[in-house]
Amino acid sequence: MINDNLYKRGYIISAIVALVVFIYILRLFSMQIMEDKYKDAADSNAFLKRTLYPPRGLIYDRNGELLVYNQPAYDITLIKREMPKDFDTIDFCSTLDITKEEFIERINDMSQKRGYSRYTPQIFMTQLSMQNIAKLQEKLYKFPGFSIQNRTLRDYAYPAACHVLGSIGEVSQKDIDADDYYKRGDYAGRDGIEYTYEKQLRGEKGVEILLRDARGRIKGRLEDGKYDIAPKAGENLTLTIDIKLQMVAEELLSGKVGSAVAIEPHTGEILALASNPGWDPSILVGRQRSANYAQLLKDKTKPILNRATQATYPPGSTFKTVQALVCLQEGGITPNTPFPCSGPGSQPIKCTHHHGSPVTLLNAIEQSCNPYFWLAFKSTLEKDGYGEDNQIFKQNYNQWREDVMSFGMGQKFTDSDIFNQVAGNIPNEKFYTRYYGSKGWKALTIRSLSIGQGEILVTPLQMANFMAAIANGGYYITPHLNKSDSMLLHRHETNVDPKYFPVVKEGMWRVFEYGTGRWHKIDSVAMGGKTGTAQNPHGKDHSLFIGFAPIEDPKIAVAVVVENAGFGATWAAPIASLMIEQYLFGEIRRKEVFKRLSTTATNPDVKE
User: Fold this and answer.
1) 52-236, what's its fold?
2) Where in the chain is the domain with CATH 3.40.710.10?
3) For a disulfide at 333, which of 113, 285, 337, 570, Cβ 3.0-4.6 Å?
4) pLDDT digits 0-9 by tens, 215-241
């Protein structure tokens, strides 16, 4: 019995010893293999690994004009372990022109960040200029633990194209978790081209390994830099933007709320993409970025919103060009189909102009005859009757919608590099059935669509794109901003037979020769265009225009929207005409017209 007890006790003691040994082994494994802080502590005694940041790629316009470049900047880093207890906080704060409270706040904030280590360099302050850092460099020996890290900041050759270019900001924890390239305190593109092409522009980091003595003093590079890795500069980027045209567009929109987009039809290259109000991109650089961005967010005119790609509007009469093409394609009309412009047969939509009746297609486009396009729409949707449970009508509507969307409306350009687009809206069958029931809607119910009103919503980018499709005679290339990335294989054919485009283009030519655009025609240039005045339930109507030139070999397609400015012919049309003039001739010839438009405000809330 005694032997049995001793035998059992031996088992228990052996098990306890084995457990203790296992715990020690597990802890040693954790300390030596799994926990970075011990490795950091060991390494930091002998080496200082300093990240070498690459210069970010430069950005040029289509003609080789430098738009975005780099200037030197500096970060201050701190290895908390090396900071002495008797650190002279007052002298340090005075040198950097910060308060003691700000110093303490930065230390606490740094210590609470994920990934913090007392043994490795941590970001204390970022993006200081040479003027900010000069005093610190002279006295750095007095502040153990602190060092200066070379960085770069963006700088801009022109105070323009803020929405296109975007900006640089500090990465978030989400960015760090998603891409191990980034560490706390790094910077990346936050919007615009800087965001879209972040991986190409950012380059590759390098590293410099420095030797330290027992007191932590730098003694030189490890084996004369044998193990250093040089940084690799980011790739340069050439945009499709013509900066001179971009600046003309922005000047013409001065004092107004709106946008202007210009596209080269044959390539889909965006020549200008302007949204107003905007800002000088240089204000979102360096330590001033946060405060200035907060001010932009508070501005009631919403300068952060890129109206060219994110704002949606009823296209108004500019949509009549697409309406004509779809109605021709689906057999609702022919070029010679007459409709009354006035009288009982034209109801319930009235004409806003005074011309003869009946009207055919060319005259309807030239004079923007509302009854004509309503009756053409009705004829297209009701050409086969209604059928059981309204099915034939719905089929015709769905085909009409599909044809309209083939011009790039009601959807994002998913194969494009354009940042922050919205889809707009070409309402589907389910939308109307939900409101009116399966049998409760017909052409008369949705008649506003016939003249580009009602539930149709498009962006100015989409307007410029369908203008390019018409200029091309039936196709468009995905609109894009990277000049070196040819998108010619991204060709999208519309649903409309090319044979129908010449008559619509002729009607648009007549708009400039005899219609609402005749006051804004450029001498010696055959142009096509269409004005629009979009109803706005929140205030004065929006002024719209689409146009292209020259007629025979289009070089530029333009869309302009000026919010709450009234008739399309008053504001949007002359702005578009001057943009076309600038691009075709490289200068503005009608200087008095340019001066009047660029110095006249339509919105008193817009800050200049």
Assistant:
1) Penicillin-binding protein 2a (Domain 2) (3.90.1310)
2) 243-599
3) 337
4) 566 667 777 778 889 999 999 999 999
